[in-house]
Amino acid sequence: MGHPNFPHWKRPNTRQWRLLDLITIAFFSLLFLFFVLFYTTLGGRRVVGPSTVDPQQRIRLVAAIEEGIPNGRIIEACPASEADHTPCEDPRRNSQLSREMNYYRERHCPLPEETALCLIPPPKGYRIPVQWPESMHKIWHSNMPHNKIADRKGHQGWMKREGQHFLFPGGGTMFPDGAEQYIEKLSQYIPIKGGVLRTALDMGCGVASFGGYLLAQDILTMSFAPRDSHKSQIQFALERGIPAFVAMLGTRRLPFPALGFDLVHCSRCLIPFTAYNATYFLEVDRLLRPGGYLVISGPPVRWAKQEKEWSDLQAVAKALCYEEITVDGNTAVWKKPAGDSCLPNENEFGLELCDDSGDLSQAWYFKLKKCVSSTSSIKGDYAIGRIPKWPERLTAAPSRSTLLKTGVDIYEADTKQWARRVAHYKNSLNIKLGTPLIRNVMDMNALNGGFAAALKSDPVWVMNVVPAQKPPTLDAIFDRGLIGVYHDWCEPFSTYPRTYDLIHVASIESLIKDPASGKRRCNLVDLMVEIDRILRPEGTIVVSDAPEVIDKVARIAHSVRWKPTIYDKEPDSHGQEKILVLTKTFWKL
Question: In terms of pLDDT, which residue wins out, 407 or 371?
C-alpha cells in the first residue's frame, strides 16, 4: 500500500528508495573507510601507501615523513611477492638489457621515482635465523624456501633439504667430497696456514662453502656471484653467516680496490678469462696483490673440447709473468710476480701497459680496461712477503692509509678510539656484539676500518663500505686484512633482503650529501628504507651524528617501524655528536 496522506501519483516508490539509500550509504562508507586508513590513525598508526605513479606525490610523502608531519605515520609493506627483492639486480628489469659481456647481469638501478615507497616483508613462516656457528651447516627452510639449488646441486654436496632445514655438507661442483679436503689439497701449493694469506676472492661462489671453510684458517673471503638461474645462492651464503656479495664480472670493474686480495679463486665459475683480449684476466690481475695466488679449478683447465681456451689461459698468464705453480688434474695454481708486470713484451693478445695507471683503484661504475695497469704509481710495501702476516697486519699502520699522511700517531690514536667506542657500545648501550645474536655486520662509512678492527675478537665478519664519493680508503682496509666494497648510498646495495644483523653508520647525513657543495643528492627516508631492506628482523642500527641529525633520524625511525633510543656521546669524546640505537621490529604481513 501507498502512503495514506499522498495521492497515488505522488506516493514514493518505497522499495526503490530503500535500495538507493543502501547503495549510497555503502559507497560513502567505503570512501570514508579509505580516508581513515590512508590519512588518519587506525589502531594507533597511520599508513603511507607505495607511490609509483605520481613522482610529485612521492616527494610530498617523503617530505612529510622527514618532517614528522603528522606524527605516527608509517610506511606500508610491499607485496609478499617482493620478499626477496634486489632493486639493482631485478630480473624483471634487467632481462630486457643487452647480453653482451653479461651487461644485463650487472647493477642497473631504478630511479627513486620508479620505486615504490614500501618496506620489504619477510616471507611467510620467517624465523629468526639459526645462530653462528651452527648456521654454517644448517638454516631454516622457511626463511628462503627456494629448492632449486638443492634439487639440482644436491648430488654435488652443495645443499639438501631435511625437514624444516636446509643442510650444507660443504661440497661444490669441483669438490663434491667437501671443501675441507679441497683446501687441504690446495695447501700443498699455497701457504694456506700461518697468516701469510688473509684476504681472498671467490668468484662465482655458489653457496660459499669454500669461503666458509677458509675461515678456520683465518682467511677472510669475499664470495660473489650474480643473481642468476641459481636463485638466491648469495642469500643462502649470507644466511649461513659467510661473507658474500651480489656481483657480476661483465663490462665494469668489480667494486674492490686494486691489489687487495691475497688469493683469487674460481671453481667452475665459467668466467671466460681470455675473451675480449683477456679483459677479465686483466681485472683479476688488477685485484690480485703482488705475490698473491690465482687458483682456477674446472673449465678450461685440461677440460675436454676446451683445449684452445686452456692454451690461451696459459699464454695470458705467461705474458704477465705469472709463475705456474702446478696443474693438478683440473686445478691450476699460479703466483703473481711480486714486482711490476714484465710487460711490454711480445704476446699474441696484444697486451700493453695502460697509458695512465693513476686510476688503478677507481672501481665504481668504471669500465674494464683492455690494458695492463702498472703498479709503479702505488707506493708502499703491500706485496705478499712484505706486508705483515695476520694478525699483525691488522694493527700495523698500512702504507696506503690516508691517516699516515698526518703521522703514524694519528693512525694509532684512531685505532685506540675505536676500541674504546666499541667497548662503550657493549658495556653501556647493551649492544649484543660479542654474542651469538650478531654475526653479519656492516659499516656503512668505514673510512680506515677502525670499527671492524675493534671487533677482531668477536664472532662476526664486517662488510666495510667506503662511499664512492669519499676518499678511496678501501685499499688500506684490505691491507689491514679486512674486506669491503665501494658503494654510493643514494642507490640500493647489492645484497638480498634480511642479510645483516647489525648496521653501523657514522655521519649518516654525509652519505647523501655532495662532499663539494654540501647539497643533498638523495634523502634520508629512502636511505633508511634501504637499510630496513637489508637488515634482519630484530636487527640493530647504530648511528652517530650531530644532535639535529640524530633527532631527524629518530623521527623517521617511527615511520620505518624501528624503535629508537638516543644516548649522549661516549666518554672522552670531544665532539658534540650523539648516538642513536635503533631496533627493527619483527612484523609480518
Answer: 371
Under 8 Å between Cβ of 215 and 246? no
pLDDT (tens digit, 9 = 90+) per residue, 200-231? Answer: 999 999 899 999 999 999 999 999 999 976 56
Total H helices, total E strands in the chain:
15, 19
Alpha-carbon gap, residue 526 to 524, rounded angstroms:
6
User: Taking the CB of residue 456, how many other CB atoms lie within 10 A of it?
Assistant: 15
Give the model confidence (pLDDT) of 371-380 as tens digits. Answer: 888 777 777 7
Per-residue burial over 12-45, b if 16 or more Cβ lie within 10 Å, else e, is eeeeeeeeeeeeeeeeeeeeeeeeeeeeeeeeee
How many residues are present in the chain?
589
The C-alpha atoms of residue 256 and residue 247 are separated, in whole angstroms, by 11
Instruction: Residue 373: name the closest of 329, 328, 336 by CA.
Output: 336
For residue 412, count other CB atoms closer than 10 A to its CB.
Answer: 13
Give the pLDDT of residue 379.
Answer: 77
Q: Three-state DSSP class for 463?
A: strand
Query: Is the bond preceding residue 344 a cis peptide, omega within 30 degrees?
Result: yes
CA distance 534 to 420: 28
Residue type, 167: L
What pLDDT digit, counting tens, does each position of 529-543 carry?
999 999 999 999 999
- In terms of Cα–Cα distance, which of 113, 83, 61 is closest to 556? 61
3-state secondary structure 413-426: HHHHHHHHHHHHHH
* Phi, psi (degrees; rounded to nearest 5) at 442: -125, 135
Closest of 170, 79, 186 to residue 123, by C-alpha: 79
Helix (H) or strand (E) holding 539, with range, is: strand 535-545
Grid coordinates 587506525 are at which residue? 42
Q: DSSP assignment of 182-218, as one string?
A: HHHHHTTTS--SSSS--EEEEES-TT-HHHHHHGGGT
pLDDT score recorded for residue 405: 65
User: Containing H/E element for 279?
Assistant: helix 275-287
Instruction: List C-alpha distances in Å: 426 to 134, 257, 262, 423.
Output: 23, 31, 32, 5
Kindly report, residue by residue over 541-562, the tens digit of the pLDDT: 999 999 999 999 999 999 999 9
The predicted-structure confidence for 98-111, as pLDDT tens digits, reads as follows 999 999 999 999 99
Give buried/exposed letters for 56-73 (b at 16+ CB in 10 A, else e). Answer: eebeebbeebbebeeeeb
- List the Cα angle 466/469/475 in 5-degree steps: 40
Q: Which range, of 24-33, 149-158, 312-321, averages the lowest pLDDT?
A: 24-33
Q: How buried is 209 (Cβ within 10 angstroms: 0-12 exposed, 13-18 middle, 19+ buried)?
A: buried
Burial class (CB in 10 A: 0-12, 13-18, 19+), 76: middle
Q: Are 200 and 220 in contact (CB under 8 A)?
A: yes
**Least confident piece of the model among 369-378, 388-397, 498-507, 518-527:** 369-378
Residues 6+ apart with CB under 8 A from 23: none
